[in-house]
Specification:
The protein has 664 residues and is α+β, with helices and mostly antiparallel strands. It has 4 domains: 101 residues, 2-Layer Sandwich (Killer Toxin P4, Chain A); 118 residues, Killer Toxin P4, Chain A, CATH 3.30.430; 85 residues, 2-Layer Sandwich (Phosphorylase Kinase, domain 1); 222 residues, Transferase(Phosphotransferase) domain 1 (Transferase(Phosphotransferase), domain 1), CATH 1.10.510.10. Helix content is 35%, strand content 20%. The protein contains 16 helices and 23 strands. Strands 2-1-8-11-12-10-9 form a 7-stranded antiparallel beta sheet, with helices on one face. A 5-stranded antiparallel beta sheet has the order 3-6-7-5-4, covered by helices on one side. Helix 10 packs antiparallel against helix 15.
Length: 664
Amino acid sequence: MATGSFRLILCCVFVIIISESSAQTCDNEKGNFTINSTYHKNLNTLLSSFSSYKHINYGFYNISYGENPDKVYAIGLCRGDQTQDQCLSCLNDSRVSLAQNCPNQKEAITWPGECMLRYSNRSIFGVLETRPELWFVASRNITGSVDRFNEALQNLMENLTGEAALGDSRRKYATGDASAPEFQTIYGYVQCTPDLSSNLCTRCLSEAISSIPYCCKGLTVGNVVKPSCRIRFDPYLYYGPTVKIDPDAPPPLLQQPPSSPPGTSNTSRTIIAITVPVASVVLVLSLICICLRVRNANIKRFESIREDDDKDEITVAESLQLNFDTIQVATNDFSDSNKLGQGGFGAVYKGQLSNGQVIAVKRLSTESCQGEMEFKNEVLLVAKLQHRNLVRLLGFCLEGKERLLVYEFVPNKSLDYFIFNPTKKAQLDWERRYQIIRGIARGMVYLHEDSRLRIIHRDLKASNILLDEEMNPKISDFGMARLVVDQTQGNTSRIVGTYGYMAPEYAAFGQFSTKSDVFSFGVLVLEIISGQKINGVGHGEHVENLLSFTWRNWRGGTATKIVDPTLKGSQNEIMRCIHVGLLCVQENADARPTMASILLMLNSYSLSLPRPLEPAFFMDSRTRSLSDIQSSEYNSREIRTSESTNKSTQESVNEASITELYPR
């Protein structure tokens, strides 16, 4: 690694000037142990056992030792250019360093230059963990064109991500270089803990890459480390040739340090030969008795779990509850001058709390029963979600007939405010639109797979994508979202969402799944690229829906007609995004990719994309006619703008925003 001092930034906050070799965190929130306790002894046994695994020559150790509640789990990972001796030396130095600096924490992690060592009292194998995140940067400014440097860096990191994610369970690692302006060369490497799947590795690295504009803007050196992955770039070559591993060697299994010396006596073998069969018979009889008792106990246990979940939700809700007077003062008594938007479920106001924090307040209509359902849904769901591409719920108020949701204020309004406006769309060049597409994809991957809940949004559209100061996207409005547990799909007789964004199986039969969100994402991608709304491309009598327009031109070899004429950017990227969009809107839900696969497609150009099938052109003969739908929309009185929380008053109400359909 390059020597020198680095600025360490933890959770986007400046901490201290240190050398990279001292980067580590000791987590007091996960508990502490006492010296010479069982946990302490297990930890020492585990961390001193790395050298006993002579067969591991690929730099990855996943080891556990002991029994619960004192069981210890550890992961050791070395950079791919490290020999076995170099790797063990780095891990042993890390073990000594952690013992000195984290003397009694049950969970700790260190990132010296060439390896990573972490341990915990909980299972950490195969689990994507992106926090804490540490940044190392050096004060070396870019010479020449910053935009060209950033473009070269972005392409390099994305290509390396695709290569590393395709590695096996022994190594997910890639290095490479790229040419930059002023005869500069960028050297980069990316690495994941290889116990992650390809999709999880891609997600971790993509999130690390997305931190580069924040940690390393205008700099030629950057290093972002997370528990599950790591990236680095530098103008100097700091890594050596990748150490080759035997392609025929078996993948690693979970290792257990030896608890006793190898070899046993003949007497021991005799005792074992006698006791094992007897113990087996006793065990079988015991299991039969236990199964009969557990069978009855499961019902009671299920009820107990339900009660515990309810208590958790009540606890979450109580911790976020705000006083009505506080919000009333913050919004100047909900004055019209602070009004950001008006929809069928109420209005959105800008406000400022006494501590100076700017907020957006959704004040739900007191007449809407559905508004109350939406209110409870958003509080319980959104309060549990934390991601940079999701709007953050700060609190709520339930007082009398008043139901208020308080969000972070996102200043740049919603995506539809820009892309459908002939003048304002010019503010979103291709680089920004591509950033928005990938940010939305990251947020959806979190909802579908990475959060502890599986969330199906059901109303993903341009007006529900808010843009922050840097035009980064934030998914909003979870009033229609559904939580699914231990399943990937569900059915409903109450169909809500936005006509045109709804997948055909959902609009026709009430079948919703993560793939129905994928359909909505595909429509959104095509809208972002074309600058056209889903419900009409063209003018006068020659109006065509966006999906059929896109498919016709894609099949006819005239895909450039799909692209917004104001866009000037990489044609390869634009065409690839159109391809991904068409894969998302295929009529057969099973043929659509998952959001994790989509993110991989967007981040890696080394992957070949399958040929898309014909998309679903709105609803076919199996569903009601358009006039029936429009009549239902009018009569249901459920037409609204999905509060893009900070939506401008200049935006019109989208009359197709909420559609109550009833499947046959």
